[in-house]
Design goal:
This protein is mainly alpha-helical. The protein has 8 helices and 6 strands.
Length: 244
């Protein structure tokens, strides 16, 4: 069963697979993924920032600048409480776009200009460490049951942090797409992100797909091979799921 917006509801066999998690596990999953991503950025060499990323039209430096903006969003959202009932959860937080990004969207272009303004990678690293550490501390101090306003809706802080596990994991894959020696995303974050993507898709990826491959092909970051398309069957027609 699907909602009118085409996004699968969070129920799995009558059980809500998101809110059924212990509340603090949502914080732990967020912290693990975010800490790993920031550590991967901190370990980059200056020349790595000029390499392409897995985000169309963005270099690694542009992606890192986007992560600074993401961290700011986390801080803003966690201090925007509301008494209203939740209208979103960790899965329905995401909207589905019809086309893959090409890097020419005005906001994407703005990110490129902002990243270039840093000039030196060390300054971008410093800003991400500064704001990113604050976002991590804020998440650790937040009551997962707190209701917060974001994206014209209401979500619990715990579900919001869960949604960002998917954000961090996908961008960690983007960061390392052309940097084979860079640290990879935690396996727990890959598995949790796959679970959420499968709920959005309304179907599970075959077990032969690794968590990484499921996320890459599922979100259009890698094209399906002919063999993969055959193995996916009807699910292939739903892909890619362009999360925005």
């Amino acid at each position: 069963m699907f909602a009118e917006n085409g996004i699968a509801p969070v129920l799995d066999g009558g059980r809500d697979i998101i809110s059924a998690d212990p509340a603090m596990q949502q914080v732990t999953d967020f912290s693990r993924s975010w800490t790993a991503l920031r550590a991967a950025v901190a370990a980059l060499e200056d020349q790595d920032f000029a390499q392409p990323s897995g985000c169309a039209g963005w270099l690694v430096r542009d992606l890192v600048c986007h992560l600074v903006i993401d961290a700011q969003d986390v801080l803003i959202t966690l201090v925007t409480p509301t008494e209203a009932e939740p209208t979103r959860n960790a899965v329905t937080y995401w909207n589905i776009a019809e086309t893959l990004p090409a890097g020419d969207d005005p906001l994407d272009a703005l990110t490129v200009r902002l990243a270039a303004a840093y000039e030196e990678p060390r300054l971008l690293k410093f800003h991400l460490d500064d704001v990113g550490s604050a976002a991590g501390r804020a998440a650790a101090l937040t009551d997962p049951a707190l209701r917060v306003s974001t994206r014209d809706g209401v979500i619990t802080a715990g579900d919001y942090l869960s949604a960002y596990v998917l954000e961090w994991t996908l961008h960690h894959l983007d960061l390392t797409a052309y940097l084979p020696d860079a640290a990879k995303p935690p396996s727990e974050g890959l598995a949790r992100s796959r679970e959420m993507l499968e709920v959005i898709a309304g179907a599970a990826f075959p077990l032969s797909f690794s968590d990484k491959d499921a996320l890459l092909v599922g979100t259009g970051r890698r094209a399906l091979t002919a063999a993969e398309k055959t193995e996916l069957g009807e699910l292939a027609a739903k892909l890619p799921l362009v999360l925005v």
